[in-house]
Amino acid sequence: MGTPILTYHSIDASGSIISLAPATFARQMETLRQLGYRGVSVREWLDHPGQGGPPDGSPPGRPCVITFDDGYQNNLTHALPVLKQCGFGATVFLSTGVGPRNDWVNAPGVPSLPMLTWPEVRELEAAGIDIQSHGHRHVPLNRLGAADIQTELTTSRQLIAQHVPRPADVLCYPYGAYNEDVIRAAKACGFRAAVTTRFGWNAAAADRYRIERVPTQWFRKFPSFFPVLLRHWGSPVLLPLIRVYVGMRKRMRKGQVG
Predict the structure, then answer these.
(1) Which of helix, strand or coil describes residue 218?
(2) How far apart are CA 161 and CA 120, in angstroms?
(3) Cβ(110)–Cβ(18) under 8 Å?
(4) What CATH architecture is 5-253?
């Protein structure tokens, strides 16, 4: 059945394609809690796959991995209080060479948003949030040569290691862009796993360098899909149907449908 891995970006009220309103995020976390899920980080999931209870002996729950891409400041100001209230862990995939705002984003409707500073990153880590790599400059790695891929990955790992106690050992491919060369470079640079933007679920034998996730922004206009998805996670009927729905939404955004 696999473990659901949720993808978030910015927690703000703009309604942009990368945004989820703070109130919606809080409702989703409460839904997870009520359904018996326990929010965990990528690091904890990899260390204890399928484990229902945390090492400290607190009440067990079915694990659900919570991830945030890019490193928006509102992950600290808006998301962290909700996570703490629910007793959840999470991972922030940090692009170490961007900022102070998300100037690399040129999608329509996306507001200018502040990124995390290093003191704020340390505050998140001290609160139990797992800090991992989203590359350095947030560029599609599959368009780079071997030397530039290595520079992107090693620079990101080195900067994170300078600022937080635990080294980054999981990569989130910027834009979900990767190929075999990128995977080889990730392994050579010391990453033990990598996540994609592909919708799906991960069985125990899944390729740890092609980890699939659930892009939660696709359910913003249909909030009732979120509890249905998590309540019936692993259904042989429901999940393929949602994958088709997500694919159609992506094609519509690109102007290929409708």
Answers:
(1) helix
(2) 15
(3) yes
(4) Alpha-Beta Barrel (3.20)
Please report which confidence band the pLDDT of residue 204 belongs to, taking 50, 70 and 90 as the band edges: low
Cβ(196)–Cβ(178) under 8 Å? yes
Quote the tokens at residue 4. Answer: 């659901």
Q: What are residue 11's phi and psi, to 5 degrees?
A: -105, 90
Reported as a single tens digit per residue, the pLDDT across 134-164 is 999 999 999 999 999 999 999 999 999 999 9
Strands 37-40 and 62-70: parallel
HSE of 87, CA atoms in CB hemisphere, 13 A = 13
User: Domains of the chain: which residue ranges?
Assistant: 5-253
Report pLDDT digits (tens) over 83-93. Answer: 999 999 999 99
State pTM to two decimals.
0.90
Residue 69's nearest CA partner among 106, 115, 38 is 115
Please state, in angstroms and rounded to a whole number, the distance separating the CA atoms of residues 258 and 256: 7
